[in-house]
Structures are given as C-alpha cells and as structure tokens.
Write a structure and sequence with these properties.
4-stranded antiparallel sheet, 248 residues, 6-stranded mixed sheet, binds adenosine-5'-triphosphate, nucleotide-binding, alpha/beta, 28% strand
C-alpha cells in the first residue's frame, strides 16, 4: 500500500510563531503517478501545506506540531530540504521566482545542484527539458527577468525537472497568466506526468483548470480539508460549482 503512495500527509497541524494555528488537521494522499489538486481560496492554507511537505516552514517561523508526512515512505521531518530534493521531492514556489539576472539556461542548470552524476547526464537532461518546453529552448540565452510571465513559470518548472523529481509540489502556476498560457503550461504538466511519471501536488485557486488536469482534488477551507474526491465528481458537485468554479 505504502508503495502505491508517493506522498501521504496524516492529520498535520501547523503553527506559526508558536501560537498561530493555521493547519488544523490536514490529511491528503498523492498516489504514485497522479496529479492531485489542492484547492481553496487565498489564505486557506495551500502554501503552508506545501511548505510543510518540503520541510521549508522553519524559515517562516512555522512548525508541524502534530501528525506525520511520508514522502516515498520516509518521514520528511527527518530529512533536510536538500535531502528531500535528492530523494525526488521538489517544490516550485508561488510567484515563479526565476533568478532574474541569470539566463534561462543558467536558471535551469541551478536545478541540478543536488546531483552528483556527471556533466553529460546534466547536459542530456537540459535537452530533455527543452524538448518539453520549446519556448525555453528559443529563449535559452535570454535574461530570465526579461522573459514573459509564462516563460518564467516554465523556467521554474524546468529548473525543478533538472533535479529528476518523483514529485513536484507546484504552487499556483496559473497566477497572473492569461488562460491560453495557463493551458499551455498545464498541457506540459500533463505530458511530464504521463511520459516521465512525475507525480504532482498542484495548489491552485483556478479550480476549473486544476480539476481538468488532476485525477483527485482536496478543498481546503480555513486550514481544514472540507471536501475531497475524484476530480470529475468535485467538478460536478453543486457546492463546488457555486463556491469555487467560475471564480478564477
Ligand atoms: P495563498 O493563495 O495566499 O498562497 P494559501 O491558501 O496558500 O493562500 P497560506 O499562504 O498557506 O494560504 O496561508 C494560510 C494562513 O496562514 C493565512 O491566514 C496566512 O495569513 C497565515 N500565514 C502564512 N504564513 C505565515 C507566517 N509566516 N506567519 C504567520 N501566519 C502566516
């Protein structure tokens, strides 16, 4: 059973600054090879959940005070953020933080920082990333800060791919992008999922789009999962339609 799940989050609580309880018992699962959507309004706790998984809460004065998180069967608490990347769990932060002053290609190469295999394997993977993102191939020599928002989002996903992940935690990739570009990015995510077997936990406010690509979804409200199920079932649920569809 455990092998079928790349990620299992079991009843976690997260507290910021020792007193602010933000996650109040969140459980979720990502079956290996699936795209799972984590949905909810601004402030519901999506980013906090992703940071708890990738063990990045300390920098925010946050702490998991209850529950457990298993990535590939291993308790993440016992792993440093870099260990997690080496084991195949990587987070793509909200706000597409490409290194603005580096070229697109330099940005991609920074994604290989935890790898110990040789230059030729890394060069091969660079070409693999360009095959998925032809726009990045065209812009490889451009300063990232001067590329479009969509290209920067592609750049940070491409950078994550350079670590050869099993799972990518993708935080609001659609934010601020035109629907056509969002669709282009989600099509590539689907492609990576199908062809490379990468699992995704996709935090999104764009419920509509996320449920078109995910197999399962969880809806967070005020630090709790209030609904979950198959993406198709959620997309046709009346409450979901009323409160979440058509808002993004
Ligand atoms: P967003 O779409 O803005 O990313 P979200 O669903 O990801 O929203 P979080 O960013 O996880 O939500 O925030 C959940 C709650 O935790 C919010 O009420 C937020 O104000 C609070 N919060 C987030 N970071 C901190 C922090 N470092 N210290 C205190 N409270 C925080």
């Amino acid at each position: 059973e455990a092998a079928a799940l790349v990620l299992s989050v079991n009843n976690i609580e997260v507290v910021y600054d020792h007193v602010i309880l933000v996650l109040k018992g969140v459980s979720l699962e990502v079956p290996r090879g699936h795209i799972v959507a984590l949905l909810g309004a601004n402030g519901a706790g999506k980013t906090t959940t992703l940071k708890a998984i990738s063990n990045l809460l300390h920098a925010e004065r946050g702490e998991v005070t209850k529950g457990s998180i298993l990535f590939d069967g291993v308790e993440v608490k016992s792993l440093s953020p870099n260990d997690l990347v080496r084991r195949g769990c990587i987070q793509v932060m909200e706000g597409r933080r490409a290194f603005a002053h580096l070229t697109v290609e330099e940005n991609l190469l920074t994604g290989a920082f935890t790898r110990r295999d040789g230059k030729s394997a890394i060069a091969q993977d660079l070409e693999r990333v360009y095959a998925y993102f032809p726009r990045l191939a065209e812009r490889r020599g451009s300063t990232a800060g001067y590329t479009s928002g969509g290209e920067q989002q592609m750049c940070v996903i491409g950078r994550a791919l350079m670590s050869r992940p099993k799972m990518i935690l993708l935080d609001e990739p659609s934010m601020g992008l035109a629907p056509r570009i969002v669709e282009e990015i989600f099509e590539i995510v689907k492609d990576l999922n199908v062809k490379e077997g990468v699992s995704f936990l996709l935090a999104e406010q764009n419920t509509n789009m996320a449920l078109r690509y995910a197999s399962h979804g969880y809806i967070l409200e005020n630090g709790r999962v209030v609904m979950d199920g198959e993406a198709r079932t959620l997309a046709s649920n009346e409450d979901v339609k009323e409160f979440y569809l058509g808002v993004a």
